[in-house]
């Protein structure tokens, strides 16, 4: 029997689950079992948990349907547990280093207790300092083990369920489980409080609780807040039958109704039926109020009196000042120029145009990436929708003749942004753009993340400084309704990097469709346009941006590489789009394609890819052509930018650390040999999950045409896809 069973419910948080599991498995105290409770097998969190179970026998996943709720998930974990003490860790929380050792030491000192309460740290996703809200409460506890009557304030419901270790036998003997509903934690904590006879406290941080950006489900608006009253009634009824002391009952009563009053006074939580909630709460208050109960002082005491009297109108008047302040704080973001502000505000008062879609790529750099692919497919499948592309003035001349576009910052720009029902971008729209009710924002992303993104960049000073305010970044994330993903890895990392309430669409990246739909004629045409000599082996060299460098550095000597790699080798040089001004037309066997509009075209033209840590490797892998990783500064890149996985341990092909090694893998042919193919196959299995040539169609059908998820074309299995042929293959044929 292990000392601890750590139960981790994780519905819908596959991206952050690994952080929680890693924090447990890294503990120096090893006498535990780890029980992730996931959705049905095959769900993102279930796949993560299964991977851990395959590597560590202490990990024992169980499943609970998401429709059953978090309480049922924790109950499923309790049924599977065999440890002496149960810990409930949320799937996006972590144990602090040494936490289990500290808990075991405290239990050794106190002997068996029904509950061991401990401290936690609340950590924001964005700017702000961590806080220890339980510290003042825990400081009031007597030393050693004690009966709850000695400190009723400590042993009530103010501590969350993940801030305590519960003796499993105690829960089983008293038949305590999580009730149904959205406030199951409150009900469980209250039942434990009523039944516990011997408790102790560890005044140390054991859990780091990451505040969810959108709040927990009980914080969201809706009729489910009436369930708070159900749990309050359940706990206080159980307390009355248990014959608790007056002090314990009074403390429990006050803490429960503090939560009830907060909900009654919160207009967002109860957008309707507030009066009905208040009246029912008043009846419960009068029914369960302990004899001799002394109301708190100040404003809380006034609220208690009004609730006891059922004086809803007076209660609302008391809270009206705060509501007015909240309304005043909600201001409309506006452009800087006065005339433009007035225009935009006027347009925002007009109804949305249900037949208008606006697209933008790379902050207005032109017609490119997934927004362009979705735009093209929308003209085919949804011709009734007017599609407008946004472009910066200096790139307007690059727009295709038949694509309607507006210049960013112009009058028409603000008009279409104010009226469009559909907004599609691979980056983010300007800070001043308002997310209107009824509008649909689609974030397509522009790559699979190897390097840290979003809020995960906050611990890397150089990147964090360039990113700016994470609060503003996450404010932009709040506008997303859909976020595209090309593979399960991306789904999970986007969830971590950009926490929000959007829906993940695992449809593939529309820009990658062409890798499965292009023909041999398309490949030949692009090679002619780029000036690739007939019969040459075209190697695309596409390094990523480095945050610690101020400009583009080509890396290896490319002329020398060509000389050593083989006489038929030419290099297509494509710098990161941060340096897209171009570097001339190239010379000799180096063809500079940095300024070419389409990275997809460049990939189609290339017979092989050399990159360092650019996300282009994930896209290029869809072509099933050789990839070589040139990692001459991998350790520096890891340290300054941060990465989500060790690329050198799971590369898409051979890894070269020096220019000599790089030339050799081409000279001896190993860049395309059996080991290269094996590495690429494993890489494709992991990262080419959803790119099958129909991603743009799925987005158009789901978002623009409103088709239900079950009607969307399923993803074609990897072994049934036929990538566009390489030119070298055509020559050999």
Give a description of the structure:
The chain is α/β, with parallel strands linked by helices and 733 residues long. It is built from 28 helices and 21 strands. The longest helix has 19 residues, at 246-264. The radius of gyration is 30 Å and the shape is globular.
Distance between the termini: 65 Å
Gross morphology: globular
Instruction: Summarize the amount of helix as a percent range.
Output: 25-40%
Q: Summarize the main sheet.
A: 8 strands, mixed
> Which band does the percent of strand residues land in?
5-15%
pLDDT average, as an integer?
A: 88
Label the structural class.
alpha/beta
Q: Tell me how many strands there are.
A: 21
The largest sheet has its strands arranged as 3-2-1-4-7-6-8-5
Instruction: Output the number of helix runs.
Output: 28
Cα-atom Rg, whole angstroms? Answer: 30 Å
Low-confidence stretches: 325-333, 578-586
Helix-strand layout with pairing:
Layout: E1 4-9, H1 14-25, E2 32-38, H2 44-55, E3 62-63, H3 69-80, E4 85-88, E5 94-95, H4 99-110, E6 115-123, H5 135-138, E7 164-167, H6 168-173, H7 184-195, E8 199-210, H8 226-242, H9 246-264, H10 274-288, H11 298-309, H12 312-329, H13 338-348, E9 353-360, H14 369-381, E10 386-391, E11 405-407, H15 411-419, E12 420-425, E13 440-443, H16 461-467, H17 470-477, E14 482-484, H18 488-497, E15 503-505, H19 514-517, H20 520-530, E16 537-541, H21 558-565, E17 569-573, E18 590-592, H22 599-605, E19 608-611, H23 616-620, E20 627-630, H24 634-641, E21 655-656, H25 659-667, H26 674-687, H27 695-704, H28 727-732
Parallel strand pairs: 1-2, 1-4, 2-3, 6-8, 9-10, 9-12, 10-11, 12-13, 13-14, 14-15, 16-17, 16-19, 17-18, 19-20, 20-21
Antiparallel strand pairs: 4-7, 5-8, 6-7
Helix pairs in contact: 1-2, 7-8, 8-9, 8-10, 9-10, 13-15, 14-27, 20-22, 21-25
């Amino acid at each position: 029997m292990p000392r601890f069973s750590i139960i981790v419910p994780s519905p819908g948080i596959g991206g952050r689950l690994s952080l929680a599991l890693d924090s447990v498995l890294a503990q120096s105290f090893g006498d535990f079992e780890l029980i992730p409770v996931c959705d049905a097998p095959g769900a993102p969190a279930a796949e993560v948990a299964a991977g851990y179970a395959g590597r560590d026998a202490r990990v024992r996943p169980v499943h609970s349907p998401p429709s059953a709720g978090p309480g049922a998930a924790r109950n499923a974990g309790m049924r599977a547990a065999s440890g002496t003490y149960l810990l409930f860790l949320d799937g996006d929380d972590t144990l602090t280093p040494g936490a289990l050792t500290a808990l075991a030491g405290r239990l050794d000192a106190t002997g068996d207790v029904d509950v061991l309460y401990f401290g936690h740290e609340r950590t924001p996703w964005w700017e702000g300092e961590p806080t220890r809200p339980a510290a003042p409460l825990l400081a009031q506890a007597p030393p050693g083990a004690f009966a709850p009557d000695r400190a009723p304030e400590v042993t009530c419901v103010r501590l969350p369920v993940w801030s305590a270790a519960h003796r499993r036998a105690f829960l089983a003997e008293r038949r305590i489980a999580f009730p149904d509903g959205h406030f199951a934690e409150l009900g469980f904590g209250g039942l434990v409080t009523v039944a516990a006879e011997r408790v102790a406290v560890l005044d140390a941080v054991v859990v780091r609780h990451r505040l969810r950006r959108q709040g927990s489900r009980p914080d969201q608006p809706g009729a489910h807040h009436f369930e708070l009253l159900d749990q309050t009634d359940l706990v206080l009824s159980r307390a009355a039958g248990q014959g608790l002391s007056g002090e314990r009952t009074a403390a429990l009563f006050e803490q429960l109704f503090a939560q009830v009053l907060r909900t009654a006074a919160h207009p967002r939580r109860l957008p309707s039926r507030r009066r009905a909630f208040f009246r029912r709460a008043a009846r419960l208050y009068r029914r369960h109020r302990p004899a001799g109960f002394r109301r708190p002082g100040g404003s809380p005491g006034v609220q208690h009196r009004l609730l006891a009297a059922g004086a809803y109108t007076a209660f609302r008047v008391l809270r009206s000042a705060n509501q007015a302040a909240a309304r005043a704080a909600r201001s409309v973001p506006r452009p800087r120029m006065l005339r433009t502000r007035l225009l935009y505000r006027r347009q925002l008062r007009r109804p949305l145009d249900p037949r208008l879609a606006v697209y933008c790529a790379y902050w207005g750099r032109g017609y490119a990436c997934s927004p362009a692919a979705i735009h093209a497919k929308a003209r085919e499948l949804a011709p009734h929708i007017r599609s407008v592309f946004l472009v910066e003035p200096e790139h307007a001349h690059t727009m295709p003749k038949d694509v309607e576009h507006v210049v960013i910052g112009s009058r028409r720009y603000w008009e279409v942004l104010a009226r469009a029902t559909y907004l599609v971008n691979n980056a983010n729209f300007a800070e001043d753009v308002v997310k209107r009710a009824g509008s649909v924002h689609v974030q397509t992303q522009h790559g699979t993340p190897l390097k840290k993104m979003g809020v995960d960049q906050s611990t890397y000073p150089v990147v964090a400084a360039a990113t700016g305010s994470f609060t503003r970044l996450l404010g932009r994330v709040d506008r997303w309704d859909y976020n595209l993903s090309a593979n399960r890895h991306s789904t999970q990392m986007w969830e971590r990097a950009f926490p929000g309430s959007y829906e993940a669409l695992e449809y593939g990246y529309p820009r990658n469709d062409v890798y499965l739909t292009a023909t041999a004629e398309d490949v030949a045409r692009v090679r002619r346009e780029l000036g690739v000599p007939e019969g040459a082996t075209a190697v695309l060299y596409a390094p990523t941006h480095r945050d610690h460098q101020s400009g583009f550095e080509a890396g290896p000597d490319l002329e020398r590489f060509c000389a050593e790699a083989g006489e038929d080798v030419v290099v297509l040089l494509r710098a990161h789009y941060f340096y897209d001004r171009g570097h001339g037309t190239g010379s000799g066997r180096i063809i500079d394609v940095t300024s070419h509009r389409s990275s997809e075209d460049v990939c189609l033209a290339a017979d092989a890819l050399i990159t360092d840590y650019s996300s282009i490797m994930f896209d290029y892998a869809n072509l099933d052509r050789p990839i070589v990783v040139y990692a001459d500064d991998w350790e520096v890149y890891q340290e300054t930018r941060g990465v989500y996985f060790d690329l050198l341990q799971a590369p898409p092909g051979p890894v070269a650390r020096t220019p000599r090694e790089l030339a050799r893998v081409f000279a001896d042919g190993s860049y395309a040999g059996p080991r290269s193919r094996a590495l690429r196959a494993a890489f494709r299995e992991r990262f080419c999950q959803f790119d099958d040539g129909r991603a743009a169609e799925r987005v158009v059908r789901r978002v623009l045409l409103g088709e239900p998820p079950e009607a969307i074309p399923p993803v074609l299995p990897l072994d049934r896809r036929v990538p566009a042929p390489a030119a070298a293959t055509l020559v050999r044929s």
